[in-house]
């Protein structure tokens, strides 16, 4: 991962990976005989690292930020992280590298599946038809990929990416209100309050 971020795909070699890992070339080749086997293992590791980082970060958010805006802030941090940049480097390089392409062909779909699974678990209620959620998240994913590429170049020096993210969060709040509960229709009577659990404070 560090090699891909620091040196790019063209500068990443098994020799440099072994040097940074502090192992001999023989030990590295024992576990991963070819560069592509090493890449395949790295892809699996980075995808799992992204999922765990996002879920853990959301779980420890203060209660007042555990909403769709907070979730989008965290997702943006994930997209700007080193594992995400390493995966993006592989995806771009795979366009012209026939040997690398099979490892990256379904990369975006796997990341999308992870985002969709997490979204449905964190926000089970929203105002979208069920079949619209994957399409909405696909659009969000494409937007974040574009923003993250520019961010890798300029670190948002002019604040343009921050402005886009703010607008995305404003729209998302209308679709997924705080707590993930559906927005009541205009003029609808409020839901009756359920019984207070015994011993709970009001």
Automatic annotation (TrEMBL):
It comes from the Bacteria. The keyword Transcription regulation applies. GO terms for molecular function: DNA-binding transcription factor activity; transcription cis-regulatory region binding. Residues 1-50 form the HTH tetR-type domain. Residues 181-202 are annotated as: Disordered. Residues 13-32 bind DNA. InterPro entries: BetI_C, Homeodomain-like_sf, HTH-type_TetR-like_transc_reg, HTH_TetR, Tet_transcr_reg_TetR-rel_C_sf. The keyword DNA-binding applies. Residues 183-195 have a biased composition (Pro residues). Pfam families: TetR_C_6, TetR_N. PANTHER family: HTH-TYPE TRANSCRIPTIONAL REGULATOR BETI, HTH-TYPE TRANSCRIPTIONAL REGULATOR RUTR. This is HTH tetR-type domain-containing protein. It comes from Actinomadura macrotermitis.
């Amino acid at each position: 991962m560090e090699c891909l971020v620091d040196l790019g795909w063209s500068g990443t070699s098994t020799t440099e990976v072994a040097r940074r890992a502090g192992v001999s070339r023989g030990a590295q080749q024992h576990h991963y005989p070819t560069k592509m086997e090493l890449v395949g293992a790295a892809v699996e590791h980075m995808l799992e690292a992204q999922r765990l980082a996002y879920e853990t970060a959301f779980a420890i958010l203060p209660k007042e930020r555990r909403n769709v805006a907070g979730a989008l802030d965290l997702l943006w941090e994930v997209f700007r992280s080193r594992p995400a940049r390493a995966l993006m480097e592989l995806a771009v390089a795979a366009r012209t590298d026939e040997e690398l392409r099979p490892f990256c062909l379904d990369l975006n779909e796997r990341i999308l599946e992870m985002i969709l699974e997490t979204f449905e678990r964190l926000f089970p209620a929203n105002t979208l038809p069920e079949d619209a959620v994957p399409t909405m998240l696909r659009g969000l994913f494409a937007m974040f990929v574009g923003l993250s590429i520019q961010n890798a170049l300029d670190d948002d020096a002019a604040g343009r990416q921050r402005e886009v993210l703010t607008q995305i969060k404003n729209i998302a709040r209308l679709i997924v209100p705080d707590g993930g509960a559906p927005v009541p229709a205009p003029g609808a009577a409020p839901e009756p309050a359920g019984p207070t659990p015994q011993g709970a404070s009001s």
